[in-house]
Write a structure and sequence with these properties.
The chain is built from four helices and ten strands; from the N terminus they run βαββββαβααββββ. It has about 170 residues and is an alpha+beta fold. It has one domain: Pnp Oxidase, Chain A, CATH 2.30.110.10. The termini are close together.
Length: about 170
């Protein structure tokens, strides 16, 4: 593993680019079993006095089971050279495919959870809050179009308890 622990305050990040354009892998589980999925929705910031990452997962996703069972999840960011692997991980289920075998990504087990050696930056997150998106709470009903054919997401807020940057 070629990562060094870093202080979040030393990072200069653009979350709009990292999350919305480059995407990330959300992973939960450990060396006994894990799953990962590509996501392009999320938030990073500070709430309740701690740095946090907020992610959304539909109950239909295989990764949902792992996030539900585990207190820790990782958020891994990559360079453009891994876009094809991220595209695969976002469009194929871990129930049916071995994503590591199919993409060539290398799992690393760090702080009791799973990330990937090819990542440039990894956040280790401890779940501190969860809730479900509710239809009746939408103020802008046009956003309901994201749910025409699938279940509403569950929201997880994770305290970023560690950050690792590629050496």
């Amino acid at each position: 593993m070629s990562f060094s622990k870093v202080n979040l305050l030393d990072l200069n990040l653009n979350p709009f680019k990292m999350i919305g354009k480059q995407w990330y892998l959300l992973t939960a589980g450990n060396n006994e079993g894990y799953n990962t999925m590509t996501a392009s929705w999320g938030q990073m910031g500070e709430i309740w006095g701690v740095p946090t990452f907020t992610c959304l997962v539909r109950p239909s996703r295989y990764t949902y089971e792992f996030v539900e069972k585990n207190d820790i999840f990782t958020v891994s960011f990559f360079g453009d050279e891994q876009k094809k692997a991220l595209s695969f991980c976002g469009s194929h289920s871990g129930r049916e495919y071995d994503k590591v075998k199919e993409t060539g990504l290398t799992p690393v087990f760090i702080d009791g959870t799973t990330a990937f050696d090819e990542a440039n930056l990894v956040f280790i997150c401890k779940k501190i809050y969860e809730d479900k998106i509710e239809k009746d709470l939408f103020l802008d009903k046009s956003k309901l179009s994201f749910y025409d054919s699938d279940a509403f997401h569950k929201i997880y807020i994770g305290e970023i308890i560690a950050a690792y940057k590629k050496d």
